[in-house]
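Supplementary material to the annual report.
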Amino acid sequence: MSEQETLLRVEDLWVRFPTRNGIVEAVRGISFAVGRERVGIVGESGSGKSMTGRSILRLIRPPGQMTAKEISFKGDNLLDYSERQMRDVRGHKISMVMQDPKFSLNPVMTVGKQISEAYRLHSGASRGDAKRKALEMLEAVQIREPERVYNSYPHEVSGGMGQRIMIAMMLIPDPDLLIADEPTSALDVTVQMRVLAIMDKLVKDRGMGLIFISHDLQLVSSFCDRVIIMYGGKIVETCKASELHNAKHPYTRGLLAALPQIDDPKAKLAVLDRDPVWRDQESVVAYD
Amino acid sequence: MNQPMLEVANLNVYFGEGGDIFQAVDSVSFKVKKGGSYGLVGESGSGKSTVLRAISGLIADWDGRICVEGEVLEPKREKAFYRKMQMVFQDPYASLHPRHTVDRILSEPLGLHGIGDVETRVLKALDDVGLGKAFRFRYPHQLSGGQRQRVAVARALMLEPQILLLDEPTSALDVSVQAEVLNLLSDLRTERNLTYLMVTHDLAVVAHMCEEIAVMSHGKVVEVMSVEQMRRSEPKEAYTRELLMASKGYDPEFFAGEAV
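Predicted assembly:
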């Protein structure tokens, strides 16, 4: 990544939630950077991977607290931005696709209206232009009858189509960085692969950066360029996606061994032995 | 002689009525031998869970033949039937009563069937699923996902059934926890000679758990194969091939070219 420009650089990020039983630390001092590449953040539930994604857009709501030494996007520190300036970043420069299209689309607004609204908000284009652009975008995510989908409501489309609509909406303002938080986990496997193929192509064609948050090691290692593995709010390991099978950290190795494999049958699956030491180890710095 | 434990023949399941009828399952037939483990694979809407629900008696609107140990089942089930067959549901966060303790969850089936000796049985069941008596008076919210699914398995085993219907038992769990629950299920099957019918969308999980696999699509069984055939990647149907590819991770060449 050294020869490429760094899009995003995060240094010493912490996310804390005060609860009745004291403060819960969801993310504990992680540092990483993302260029125009596909970076996967993998971890199990509670590892802090989603909170990391949200922190970048400063979407942690009180009483949750987010602190960091630096979250810079193309050299500007987002921590110094006002809420107003942040609104310009969200969607326009950095977009986010969430897990389930059922909950991220407005149920009482047509799909087309939602997509063109996203575009008009950031570009100030006219209604006509926005509609043309939205139809173009629907075509780009390989929806066969863009005109029909444009006029339909979210409950009239399938899950796979809903997620493609979300991707169209997120990509229409032409962001530099896309954060995808389990974008395909709610979808059937074959649909999942098609949606990934579309994302892959768009990200490549536009030279965007992608942060792909997932619990699926196999998927991330086959889809991304680089992988960051999180455990207990820290980064335990980072490596090239193609090198994941040579991972060194016992947590990563344990996760890989726990996966059933079709072509490598075992009588028993390996069970992960969680070592309390992992929680206290220093977070690995993942700048490249 | 060699009677199958569970036999399903020409099963059709319909939803709705009149002109608005929808056939969710279309003449599905299969046999599971005693002590065997059979997998139904397919994507959402393929009808795999509906088959399971018809067998377990949760859906009454079906025709065809369902036999357990040669005995033909009616849509309405006798109480005794549930001592033969039990089900483990997909989401342990939804299938356990949030305001019942583990003790009450596990003793309820015993009470319903008038079985005594509750305390010993509950403790033994907890032990069998690797939880131990410390968990007896906890509420579901005090348990992790994997522990909850163990409680659900323990509940299904309280009446000592011979057949377990497993509806995506690990899809809501993390991989490391999935491994624990799958190991538990395999151990229980060997120890008690249980018969499993498992529904899942994850080919790697069925390959690990089952000996024979039926692939479903749009309510029909499109292909039946043994686990060895699947391992050798010899599916005949294009749909099965696609499922197999997808379960091995993202392959840009395979999927980019033919994206719809």
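The radius of gyration of chain B is 19 Å.
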